[in-house]
């Protein structure tokens, strides 16, 4: 009853010589669209079917994986057509056309479809750009890949038609049509920035990857974010990007969580980079903000280096990361972006093929391109969703402008919120420290950020050493208060408010002694209308490569100081610079590339849980297969201060190459009878392989052995003829005995069938096994079961060496 009525649709359908197989259901229904086709075979009337049609249904839906609002040129997407239960469909047609196209020429069609399952889908015979079903049958879903067209193709309509009995569902504006436009080119970094001066930003990273939000296979013990590494840079440098290949630095961040190589790559870019961005790792990955502040860092941008990129590893994982790539902080109005907030989903660096958090190492050969993870990558993926929905973000990043330097040339004036964001001061809060929070003493107040009569702030800090009750949050570890320069009054109407000093500009020379400067600007002029006399620029001497001679080398500016080696008290910090150009005369560069100096942190306070840093992970506990590895830390504070409940050892799983498995054989069989009744012969015994060797285990030994045998000497002449006579008698006896076997002599109460043929040898060389069977043909009722049963014989075969 559900088959397509041929008389209805073929009455005016001409013979189509191009069909080599029966047409699909969709092709039969849509054949009316093909009338009047041009010789080039395009289905120009695919959108004007004359069959029965139903509008406004919600049973069927066309969906593009991830539900994007736009497409990236050249990217590939999974397209599905589904029917809501209990509905189904027998045939379908799927086509992608440019907005406003009629479908009568080649360029009207956008992108290319790729078949996933040839048993389900095929390209339409008389309409090659379209996809239809392979065989008409009940189905609830189909899926294909669609590769988006190149840049400049404009908007595209993905349209699906559904065949169900005699009804064609086709919607121009509904769940069976999806409109995708090319991703706006304004999303790409501006080729040239027209902003003036420089701007200073703070980037803050909020990790939302937790067991509550992402419960599948969540790694409870080892979850963390690696140290964050990035830079503000020009358009000529790309840290990472979708569709590109990961550098060695990106690979080491993605697989090992190590930023060292990435920082080296960034610093080697010289003038293409303005600021290196670094933030500490987070263990564990998710932490309430009332326990520990989110990682943040400050950086600057200018007209040529107005892009910002960073990345951090999601650990443990094969090679998964989150981050921003070439985020443009310059506006089209020649100003600086005030704020950027973006949710982040993980992306694959293309260097490891693992599918789960703790997959063993499996390098991608050849290396693949960087791509965002999707919910349909692999059923074992922790982000897998059979419906193909979007992945829940694992992190959020916020980039805020905190200061501007130099004269700004944007034509759009700041609004009140914009000004406040630049000059807002943090207000001091009351100290409501709970007794369950143990801190170090407050450090001394820092110097005021203003050395003159501008409004500034000063800071003090303390260290959170222990949280005795995790249910009671511990307040902030930093304290701020407003301040002004010596002799200034906060109520003085002649006070002018200045911005903070911007980062020092590069040294004026590349070799020898020079100068460098930094600037600030007036945020607010005095209320009494007087002129602000505070300096807006200051200069200091700088030295780059002390000697300028053929034996001198060219080095970069010093990098930022590393974090102090001590968490409290006296420690050390270091900074580095790179050699940009070795000496012209080929000698060794004598310039210092490493500086170390002392640093003072807040006073150390003895508390029950003062711990050393974690040691490196130990070697795996096994030499092959699955094992464990550990790391430890030591208690530094005296035990007299009380019991410390923090864990001092951590254990995690480790995976090494599989252990070798040796070949396992059965026991030897009994020796066979000698193959000759007189003279020299041989006898054999065999054994079989129970388990083949794996992962480089010991190979299987011989499966067959033979040895010589000699029963007696053979007689010659008359004796020989007597021997032949004797052998003939023995053969007759054996035949008689075999006949009696069928006659119940050997098997009382049974009649046996003759022996079957020998089976094929189990091996073609090196010694195999053959067997044959004798089965019971008839049992006498009075016969005992134990005396009447099948027999089996085994012999060796193909004993020659391989």
From TrEMBL:
NCBIfam families: NF038123_dom. GO terms for biological process: cell adhesion. It comes from the Eukaryota. Keywords: Cell adhesion, Disulfide bond, Extracellular matrix, Glycoprotein, Metal-binding, Repeat, Secreted, Signal. It comes from Astatotilapia calliptera. GO terms for molecular function: metal ion binding. The lineage of its organism: Eukaryota, Metazoa, Chordata, Craniata, Vertebrata. PROSITE patterns: REELIN, SPONDIN, TSP1. InterPro entries: Reeler_dom, Reeler_sf, Spondin/Thrombospondin_T1, Spondin_N, Spondin_N_sf, TSP1_rpt, TSP1_rpt_sf, TSP1_spondin_dom. This is Spondin-1. Residues 28-193 form the Reelin domain.
